[in-house]
Amino acid sequence: MRPPMNSTENSSVGVAHAGILRESGVQGFRHAPLPSLVLAAAFILAYIVLEWASFLHEYKGLPVTSWNPGLGVALAVMILGGPAYGAVLFAGIVAAEVVLLQSDLPWPVILGIAVAISVGYALVADAARRLLRLDVRLPHLRDVMVLLAAAIAGALLVSLLLTGILLAVGHFDWADILVAAATFVVGDLIGIAVMTPLLLRLTARWRQRTFRRFLPPFPDIVFLGAAIAAALWAVAATETNEGSKFFYLLFFPVVVAAVRHGLDGACLGLAVTQLGVVGLLHLHGYEANVFTEFQTLMFVLTATGLVVGAVVSERRAASDAVREAEARLREKEAEAAQASRFMLVSGMASALAHEINQPLTAMRALARSVQHLLQTPEADLPRAERNLATMIAHIDHVGGVVRHMRDFLRRGRPHVSTIAVRGMLEEALMLVRASATAHRIRLDLEVAEGMPPIHGDRIQLEQVVLNLVRNAIEAVAGTGRDDGSVRVIAQMPESLRRIEIAVVDNGPGIPEEMARRLFEPLTTSKQEGLGLGLPICASIAEAHGGHIWLASREAGTTEFRLSLPLDPGRVA
Amino acid sequence: MAVPTVFVIDDQESVRQALAEMLNVFGFAVQAHESADSFLRLEAAGPGCIVADVRMPGTDGIELVRELARRKRGLPVVVISGHADVPMAVAAIKAGAEDFIEKPVDDAQLVAAINRGLARFFKQHDAQRSQEMLVAWFDRLTPRQVEIFDMVVGGFTSQAIAATLGIGIRTVESYRAEIMQKMQAESVAVLVRQAIRLAP
Q: Which of A144, A179, A214 is where one domain is finished?
């Protein structure tokens, strides 16, 4: 029952206990209402050890010490494992009473006290989980508040029951109530506030397989440990019977730990601080009321530390979530861009096959000519060699087309490089030229002199140009005119640190209704189109710090323009 | 007669030159053109065969086949295409193309088609020439001789012709000899065949 005193190594018991929680099977915990035997035995042992360790003062034969870490462990176990562990708590209380304290209280009283504590806290644990939907990982400030509220409610309820029992059996008289009840309440509160969040966080870390990240980095441990020790020394050195006026110094390391390492840091800092305070009080041998006063201050410190820690953790988790969402979004954008490239290329498949078939035709003819030349007596070797050289040039051309198509379709993350504008445009047109020829459309490229290189993802920029050119070709082809032309013009507007690439066609123009929604997804005039080409082009342009717009929707001079800065900020 | 020439027409320079080079190595006289229009501008393309791509700016391969079919002495055309599909091949053959060959071109198939085209061209050429000669001979007949020619091939005997025209049988015999001589016919049977060929 009431925590025995003499604190040593509280927090290490807690850590050992978390290990036992895991071994007993995390899954079994939530679903099986019956306590695991191993866990129950381990818990009873831990409880007795903690009772022994925290036994400091006795009041009328009762170990009323305002530091009840065993109860904190018990509440954590009941929250994690269910209220059935209340029975184990009951056994632990009785065992501790008999083994440790050799209490002279009559048996019915001991049993009554044990029932009051175990049932009271089992109810509190169950209410916190079921009614208040406490998340055992304590991810939000709300969960910490629920836990603290549960601690306060439980402590009040149980101390009421205990003093009631003790009054009823005549062990206490009315004068004792204030001293005893206040000690009960504060001891339970501080035990729960320090131990329960610590155990819940350790368990959460264990389950997430990030147990090591519970501990702050070594330099922080040294610094915070030193700060706590210094504050404790200051507290001890200025000790009076009225307590210390330097207690508030302990806020510093706890708050620093909470701010730097969130709830985990706060829990650890509080456990160490509490250990220090208890040790200090033990060494000095204070009066029980002074101890209680200290523990009251300690509870304020604990609540502050936990709240700060929870807020910091929550904010950190939120910003992590945002970062993760951003990363996922970027990944999705890259996937969409790639899918759109596949669409582009599959739409040009027959034209690309032609682009490869033509040089193959030439190569075959040249190969046969060389064969024939070599078979004739007095072969014309220079002629054969000339034809072979032409053939090799064709092979290189085909290789270039194939390689480029593969690059264009390659998977993966955006790759930023320095890009020569003319080369980039020529490569983009290489993939679409066959399409233009097939529709008998002139495809011209004009690049202004002295165009500086730009920075960005070459494939993505080619994709934008290719998209615009292909749209232009299809628009012109739809008119069936025989003087169809598509022009790609790259220029540098004066005095501006950007380049502009215009794609101009003499097709039928774009209706006003369509022009307004061009860059919205699912706007398309094509049968098989998904209407994603231009929106993806727009997002690629934006990722390069540029933009894309319809400069003229007139028939005969339809013009799209892509503007790109020479020094972009973020790229794709 | 002049040496037959293969005219290679393809808008893509690499293909045009490679095919021309191959056919040249194979022993053909070759002329390359970058468009059907530039070929059609030639006043009189000598005897030969055309190898033309289907898709070209301006007049395309199939239009070229149609255009040549309209001409009196059209050259045969072998159509080649990288965009081979059945409707296109059917259109080419219906228009009168000698053959339709997919790119990359199988040279054995190409050469066979060219030779077939040339043979057909010359045969047609010969037939056309003999017809022209026949017409020229026929034009040399006088109206009286034409009248008697019609009656001879109509199966009338000399006596019947003489009775019908009211002239002497000897006179009819001498007309007949002159007609046979002018038409270079050895017998009435030959004369009858010529009459059939001359019939409109």
A: A214
The span from the CA of A234 to the CA of B173, in Å, is: 159
Residue A545 in any domain: the answer is yes
Specify which residues A501 forms β-bridges with. Answer: A490, A562
Per-residue model confidence (pLDDT) at position A62: 55
A60: left (phi over 0), alpha (psi -120 to 50) or beta: left
Tell me the nearest-neighbour CA distance from B56 into chain A, angstroms.
Answer: 7
Task: Examine the pLDDT at B80 and tell me if it is beyond 90.
Answer: yes
Residue B106 pLDDT > 70, yes or no?
yes
pTM of this structure: 0.55
Tell whether A350 is within 8 A of chain B (Cβ). Answer: yes
Check CB contact under 8 Å for B19 and A361.
yes
For an interface test with A, give the residue of B9, B11, B17, B25 to mutate (most A CBs within 10 A). Answer: B25
The band of A17, judged by pLDDT with boundaries at 50, 70 and 90, is very low
Nearest of A182, A200, A161 to residue A295 by alpha carbon: A182
The per-residue pLDDT for A5 is 40
Q: Name the helix (H) or strand (E) containing A343.
A: helix A288-347
Residue of A nearest to B105 (CA): A361
Three-class SS of residue A32? coil
Q: Which of A188, A214, A240 is the last residue of a domain?
A: A214
Handedness of CA B116, B122, B125, B131 (dihedral sign): negative
Rounded Cα distance between A240 and A125, Å, is 39
All residues of chain A having their beta carbon less than 8 Å from the beta carbon of residue B58 are 482
By Cβ distance, the residue of A357, A373, A383 closest to B104 is A357
* Token couple for B56: 């070209």
Determine, yes or no, domain membership for A356. no
- Which of B8, B11, B12, B22 should we substitute to test contact with A (largest number of A Cβ atoms within 10 Å)? B22
Identity of the residue numbered B173: E
Q: How far is CA A167 from the centre of its chain?
A: 54
If residue A183 lies in a helix (H) or strand (E), which one and from where to where? Answer: helix A174-207
Query: Which domain does A170 fall in, by range?
Result: 1-214
CATH number at residue A204: 1.10.1760
Contacts of B11 in chain A (CB under 8 A): 437
Give the residue from A369, A374, A482 with the most B CB atoms within 10 Å of its CB, the best one to mutate: A369
Q: What is the ipTM of this complex?
A: 0.74
Please compute the mean of the pLDDT values over residues B124-149 and round it to a whole number. 88
Whether A306 is covered by a domain: the verdict is no
Give the nearest partner residue to B25 out of A362, A372, A394, using CB atoms. Answer: A372
Number of domains in chain A: 2
Q: How many angstroms from the chain centroid is the CA of residue A90?
A: 41
Report the distance separating Cα B196 and Cα A373, nearest Å. 51
Per-residue pLDDT for A568 more than 50? Answer: yes
Confidence band for A12, pLDDT divided at 50, 70 and 90 = very low
Contact between chains at B104 and A390 (C-beta distance less than 8 A): no
Q: Where is average pLDDT lowest: A10-19, A158-167, B29-38, B103-112? A: A10-19
Chain A environment of B26 (Cβ under 8 Å): 369, 372
Say if residues A405 and A463 touch (Cβ distance below 8 Å): no
* CA A153/CA A150 separation, integer angstroms: 5
Interface test with A, best of B11, B14, B16, B30 (most A CBs within 10 A): B14
CB contact under 8 A, B82 and A369: no
Does some domain include residue A225? no
The Cα–Cα gap between A261 and A414 comes to 34
- Report chain B residues whose CB lies below 8 A from the CB of A354: 82-83
Pairwise CB contact (< 8 Å): A365 & B26: no
Mean pLDDT of A343-350: 73
From the list B18, B58, B82, which residue is nearest A365 (CB)? B18
Distance CA A97, CA A163 (A): 17
